[in-house]
Amino acid sequence: MSQEKQCQCAEVQEEELYPRLEEVIMEHRGKGQDLIMVLHKAQNLFGYLPKKAQEMVAEGLNVSLNEVYGVITFYNFFSTVPQGRNSVKVCLGTACYVRGSQEVLDKAQKELGIKVGGTTEDRRYSLDVVRCIGACGLAPAMLVNEDVYGRVKSPHLPDILAKYE
Amino acid sequence: MIKATINNVEIEALEGTSILWAAKKAGFTIPTLCNHPDLKPGGQCGICVVEIEGIPGLKRACMTPVGEGFKVKTHTPRIMATRRQLVELILSNHDTDCLTCVKNNNCELQQLASIVGINVHDYSRSGERLPIDRSSVSIVRDPNKCILCGRCIQVCSNVQTVDALAVNHRGFDTVITTAFDAGLGNSVCINCGQCVVHCPVGALYEKSATEEVWEALHDPDKFVVVQEAPAVRVMLGEEFGMPTGSLVSGKMHAALRRLGFDAVLETNFTADLTIMEEGTELIDRLTSGRNLPLITSCSPGWIKFMETYFHDMIPHMSTAKSPQQMFGALAKTYYAEVKGIDPGKIVSVSIMPCTAKKFECQRPEMNASGYRDVDYVLTTREIGRMMREAGLDVKEMPDEPPDDILGDYTGAATIFGATGGVMEAAVRSAYRLVTGKELENVEIKPVRGLQGIKEAEIDIDGTRVKVAVAHSCGQARKLLNKVQDQITKEGKSEYQFIEVMACPGGCVGGGGQSWGSNMAKRARRGESLYEEDRSLPLRRSHENPSVLALYEKFLEKPNSEKAHKLLHTHYYKRSTVDGKIKPAS
Questions:
Q1: What rounded mean pLDDT belongs to chain B?
Q2: ipTM strictly over 0.90?
């Protein structure tokens, strides 16, 4: 029940953001060269780039929808799915990888029921990979929001994740 | 002129000529995968690398212009080893199930592997298999065969300005897809198939209907009729090794009859009929002055393009259906009536140079006969395959005429297959309709040929009619932007009549043509159509005796109520996001 309520709430808020996106687009109307800048602003607004926002940007800047989609899917920074309240990042840098971070990642995907780049339906978690966070001495390492976890073994995961609402 | 040497052969080339073309002229064909004579070089594949003395590294011959004094080598051991490795890497990410591939024996990668001498697989297949996109009714896309050369994107974006395909995602995950990876059937794709004819491998091909047609042909309960588009008669020979543009009208009829069709009829018949309907429409509009210019509606790729990007122009469109759909509506009404056949038992097949015709025949409104007007559309390539399967060789066939009722045609109909042909045919008949006199010289040369947008001014007994012809959607976009601009600023356009064909060259350059085509081949096929026109006793649509009989016995007169019900259609506004029909607002 409570989950359902939250989802609806998020969507209502999203609807209210479109007029603001329209304002941003107005400033760059017809200027295809501003695409990345506008997408940046749009993502700051929504936290991700919903389909409707992509369509509005394409039309407003007079570029094809496919060009917009190509840019979004090329750059890691842009996301086409909403971000969760908690960002889980597993390090796949060389040191972490040789110490078994793939296993941690596999477990995280299984535990959360999502793939890398995805967000759980209740928007509690997003899962991503990073390449080295400078904690090689703690390999394998992972991040949840600002917190670093070192020497993670897959059985530790449920406890770590449970700490974040 | 620039002087250089290629493999020690002295050459002269115009400034700006690429090493690739200069070498070809000197007798050295440098292998390439992404280069296409009709498209700008993009340098994606890197196969065409060469060495230039004094310049470090290897250079791509397609992207590098010949410089003064260049000493170019095209096949040193280093170059050959590089090419071999590049091809091996491409093969490591390519489904090499060649025997079951639609492109077997026509694949540029297959040929290249043989040319550079790949005889072992050093790399195992990498990456996961991706789902095949079957969402479109016209075109199938298999990303497991795609080599990311980008020819399809170039033709879709630059030539057609449709922008259905783009490079999406990154690194190993890079794929050529539609926006939101939604699939061609859920995109702005207009089904023209130019991506298909430019793809060097088997990553893009038509959605085949050969199985369904075989089934109908072997069903004793069905009466299977077939119609063939004008352009098919100058293409089908190529499927059997005949020279490009060989005119095989009679042999085509014979082969279709031997394949088992119950009646071999002609799209050319309804091309003549289209002229009667559209010509009458033109006269009406010229008289009333409303909704000028009139724009032709024979090309289903163009129709979807217009519905998506230029739906403000819908009132300017001719409401006449395309010849394929007019034929479909008549086969299951008039023809069934005359022949005493239950229309429910008629299976209507059309042979087209086109992939968009597959989409057109499935449009929900195309059922004026009370049935699906055209059941199956086969491209020239598909009917070629069926004939080969049945052991028929078009080369060896006798010349046979089409069957009666819907079979007669004039020279005006046959030139529909080349850009400018519909315009020329319409003018031949409009002249008669307006003046009551026959046009003496029926050849209207300014609207022929493959140059860009063509214009002409025609004097119809004192009335000057300005016409324009565009082939390719990119040109159509340019022309219509101009027309819209004129209408906004001056209240009317300088043109009264416009012909648009979605494909470069018209139907002879359609998405259903034989593999390995280019503009030179399209031009050759067009010339053959004009040759057939010259050879025919009747060259004006309104002289077609079977068309006149149809009006006398069935339709009464052009644009009659019955003609409107069966032969005319309407258009929709479509979304620029997914190409779907927008609800009327």
A1: 95
A2: no
How would DSSP label each residue in B557-571? STT-HHHHHHHB---
Confidence at A2, pLDDT banded by 50, 70, 90: very low
Contact B179 A73 (CB under 8 A): no
Q: Per the CB < 8 Å rule, is B170 touching A67?
A: no
Give the contacts of B255 (CB within 8 A, at least 6 positions apart).
Answer: B236, B387, B392, B394, B397
Residue A1 has pLDDT above 60, yes or no: no
Distances in Å between the Cα of A76 and the Cα atoms of A43, A70, B165 are 12, 12, 21
The C-alpha of B104 sits at a distance from chain A's nearest C-alpha, in angstroms, of 31
Maximum pairwise Cα distance, chain B: 80
Measured CA to CA, the distance from residue B345 to residue B223 in angstroms comes to 6
Q: Which of B62, B507, B517, B541 is catalytic?
A: B507
Digit-coded pLDDT (tens) for B394-426 = 999 999 999 999 999 999 999 999 999 999 999
At residue A11, the pLDDT reads 55
The crossing angle, in degrees rounded to 10, of helices A65-74 and A35-46 is: 70
Domains of chain B: 2-88 (3.10.20.740), 139-207 (3.30.70.20), 211-567 (3.40.50.1780)
Residues B437, B434: Cα–Cα separation, whole Å: 8
Cα B213 from chain centre: 22
Is B52 a residue whose pLDDT tops 90? yes
8 Å CB contact between B537 and B274: no
pLDDT band per the 50, 70, 90 thresholds, residue B176: very high
CA distance, residue B284 to nearest chain A CA (Å) = 37
CA separation for the pair B62, B534 (Å, rounded): 41
What was the pLDDT predicted at A10? 54
B165 touches chain A (CB under 8 A): yes
Confidence of residue B535 (pLDDT cuts 50, 70, 90): very high
Q: Which residues contact B334 (CB under 8 A, 6 or more apart)?
A: B405, B550, B553, B554, B555
Q: Exactly one of B281, B307, B382, B499 is catalytic; which is it?
A: B281
